[in-house]
Design brief:
Layout (H helix, E strand, L loop, with lengths): L1 H16 L15 H24 L12 H21 L1 H15 L5 H21 L12
Helix pairs in contact: 1-2, 3-4, 4-5
Length: about 140
């Protein structure tokens, strides 16, 4: 439930951050449309997950697993560093490293998931560039 609440907060923040219209943007659908759409979809899924967890919560809280605030805050910190890293080193390296860091923090130890990080990152970059015609950040260090 903690992860859902933190993710919902992060999505609201991301939605608010994408509300600024780009200079000279006269199109109805700009580069901010897909992140906003993703925010709405993920926020809806988070709300559904939170409601499901509240409904199925047992009356005996002693059996419930204690909240791991330290891990949740570390994941949130990785996401913040990911956002900064994307501006500095670009989308691909930041996403691969961020994906792997979150997998590690969440306790994933199967090597196949770590191979999925670059595959997922390259596929998403390709889809945005070729299908949506939205180019992801290259990073200020490489310009």
């Amino acid at each position: 439930m903690i992860y859902g609440a933190i993710l919902l907060f992060a999505l609201v923040f991301l939605f608010l951050a994408t509300q600024f219209q780009e200079a000279g943007d006269m199109h109805a659908i700009g580069s901010g449309f897909y992140p906003i759409l993703t925010c709405f979809i993920l926020a809806g899924l988070c709300i559904m997950q939170l409601v499901t967890e509240w409904r199925t919560a047992s009356d005996d809280q002693a059996e419930a697993e204690p909240a791991n605030w330290q891990r949740a805050l570390m994941v949130f910190a990785v996401l913040a560093v990911y956002g900064l890293g994307m501006m500095l080193i670009g989308y691909l390296p930041a996403t691969i490293l961020g994906f792997m860091a979150i997998l590690f923090l969440l306790g994933v130890r199967r090597w196949t998931w770590y191979l999925a990080a670059p595959v997922f990152s390259f596929a998403l970059s390709y889809i945005f560039a070729e299908v949506f015609m939205v180019f992801l950040p290259a990073g200020s260090l490489f310009q």
